[in-house]
Amino acid sequence: MPRGRYSLHDPHDHTPLAEEHFHCAPGPSGWRYVSRLTAPSGDHLGSVDLALDELGRPIRLELHAASWQVRGAALDGVTWVRADPTGAHATEGNVRAHAFTGSSPAFLVATTRLLRLTPSAPATRVRLVALTDPVLAPRTVDQSWALVKREAHTTDNGPLTVDEYQVTALDTGEQHTVHIAGDVVLAAPGIELEDLASPPSVFD
User: Fold this and answer.
1) Which residue among 55, 126, 152, 165 sits deepest, i.e. has the most Cβ atoms within 10 Å of its Cβ?
2) pLDDT at residue 35 tops 90
3) Which top-rank group of organisms is this from (predicted)?
4) pTM of the entire predicted model
């Protein structure tokens, strides 16, 4: 069960935003990721609890940020309920999309589990509901993902397979690169892996 810590920063000016302490593991139903976020000051910022089924679909998502809360799942596309800090109001949403995304590295791993790309496959289009900081506002985004390269690296714990993905935002054409090993993001815009207590999980 990988445990570790990511640092999250603004990808444009590198302003530190948060640290995300996480643990994740594959299980009988798929994969689960749990984390808590702290501000640079040490204050609690929120949490992520994401469970995928064996096909990579989100069967349960619970996000907390700035006292806002979102609960969602894959149901007729993706469906969610977003509650305000007072708890007095809750709004439901539903979009014909494949999954969720957001600032947590968990969503990058989740997208790769959903797409199951191979290095020879063409780029694949995916529609996601982005839950944007700081109030978890939902926004539908279209992306294109391609697995550009797969390399095996020698480590003290045996070979480590690293996948390099090219992600394109289809509304702007902006591209970026994501490096993932198993269920751990090694590098992505705004994300750095600072500490890892055990090796990434190996998926079948």
Assistant:
1) 165
2) yes
3) Bacteria
4) 0.95
